[in-house]
Amino acid sequence: MAPNLDSFFQTVDSNADAFIERLRQAVAIPSISADEARRQDVVKMGMFLKAQLETLGAKMEARPLGKQPGKEHLELPPAVIGRYPAKKQEGKRTILVYGHYDVQPAEKSDGWNTEPFELSVDDKGRMYGRGSTDDKGPVLGWVNVIESHQKAGVDFPVNLLMCFEGMEEYGSEGLDDFIVAECKPGKFFEDADAVCISDNYWLGTEKPCLTYGLRGCSYYSIEISGPGQDLHSGVFGGTAQEPMTDLTRVMGSLVDTNGKIQIPGLYELVAPLTKEEQSLYSNIAFTMDNLYESLGSKTGIFDKKEETLMGRWRYPSLSLHGIEGAFSQPGAKTVIPAKVTGKFSIRTVPDMEPHEVDSLVFSYVKDQFAKLSSKNKLNVFLQHSGKWWVASPNHWNFTAAAKAVEKVWKIKPDLTREGGSIPVTLTFEQATGKNVLLLPMGSSTDAAHSINEKLDRKNYIEGIKLLGAYLHYVAEEPTS
């Protein structure tokens, strides 16, 4: 039986201006986690969020996460956790939601058209400001959902657990251990029945989506050294084996022009494409023109939508990112660098286990270097890795969300995966043992992490309705 959400929706609409003002107050706090000088602002944002929820009757805590690794003079921002209603309602499902209250750096001089920490709304309803879509708008969406239920006099359909962090844009330091600890018996998150994260985006601008998969990321360095110091090419060119020459030959052997990874055995680790999964791609609202617009060119590898989406989501990719130690400034400099470090990453997919990928990468790089018969020295190593994640889109958590999307947006959502990584998704899945849903509020044009970040007014207000509707549908959705 579909829930009657009319009074809730009407209350959201009538309070839209107040909800935008709440977002304005949040954007005004420059909670930049990567900037030591702004650490107090990050904490201030966490306390703002905590206070907003406490005013609505939620039971909230600011849990310390300890010192920042490598910067022991700095305290990590707290994990702001809470429960609404304050006392657990027996017989109702418990949904755990996650978001983050820190943001990327931003300065007007970076190229912003408006002040990044002053919410600016244009005549088309585009709300510009750092953090508006990533992730302050979605986080405040949950606050607004609670307030709208209260003002509408509508019974809250679930037990809501909340986990909001202040270091997501700096690697979520300290959070994984905290989540694992709090999911154990007797701890704060132990009774979660499912998890919902709103920290991603629609594939386009017109059609909502539910996201059920993310690629992982393994990031590597290749270090090649030889001379004891940088050399003059006019004096030593032709007499010394050059690290840069070796490095470019090794890096050039990793992937071909069309993106095919040249490391033997890597594709054998990839889960085969099933007919069920293949059927999901044809109806997704995406065109090749969408890709060309994003690229600013027609240099895509594939000509068809389905191949392009699978290349982005369900197959691995290898990208070269840069070289340390080489001259990279404008102009000419005739130096032979003594040591250079090349950087590349592999986006991993099911069923690629990170340690198996590492083994293949190290073996291949060493073999390619050996073929050069160089007197230089090689060191190849992993910088960091995060594993891929995939959930079942047939789980009741997803089917409930799909009904909520159709109720609010009058259209069935696309079921999508993403090429990027949100490591905390896998952490929640493994720690809780429950299904995790990615339920985006913003669209593909929001420019998260970039200049002129924005959240459309329509996406914000309708997104509040969607989050609330999701809670009602998930409260009633059968488990089978």
Automatic annotation (TrEMBL):
Site, Important for catalytic activity: residue positions: H232
UniProt entry tagged with the keyword Metal-binding: yes
Annotated residues for binding of Mn(2+) 2: H100, D134, D199
PROSITE patterns from the UniProt entry: ARGE_DAPE_CPG2_2
A single BP term in Gene Ontology: proteolysis
Cofactor(s) needed: Mn(2+)
SUPFAM superfamilies linked: Zn-dependent exopeptidases (SSF53187)
Matching Gene3D superfamilies: 3.30.70.360, Zn peptidases
Cofactor binding notes: Binds 2 manganese ions per subunit.
Binding site residues for substrate: D199, H232, T334, R347, S421, H449
Residues binding Mn(2+) 1, per UniProt: D134, E169, H449
InterPro entries assigned to the protein according to its UniProt record, in alphabetical order: ArgE/DapE_CS, CNDP/DUG1, Cyt/Met_Dipeptidase, Peptidase_M20, Peptidase_M20_dimer
GO molecular function terms listed in the Swiss-Prot or TrEMBL record: metal ion binding; metallodipeptidase activity
Keywords: Hydrolase, Manganese, Metal-binding, Metalloprotease, Protease
Residue numbers annotated as active site: D102, E168
Keyword Cytoplasm: no
Domain of life: Eukaryota
Pfam assignment, any one: Peptidase_M20
Residues of the Peptidase M20 dimerisation domain: 214-369
PANTHER family per record: BETA-ALA-HIS DIPEPTIDASE, CARNOSINE DIPEPTIDASE 2, ISOFORM A
Family under the similarity heading: Belongs to the peptidase M20A family.
Protein name per the record: Peptidase M20 dimerisation domain-containing protein
Organism: Recurvomyces mirabilis
Lineage, top ranks: Eukaryota, Fungi, Dikarya, Ascomycota, Pezizomycotina
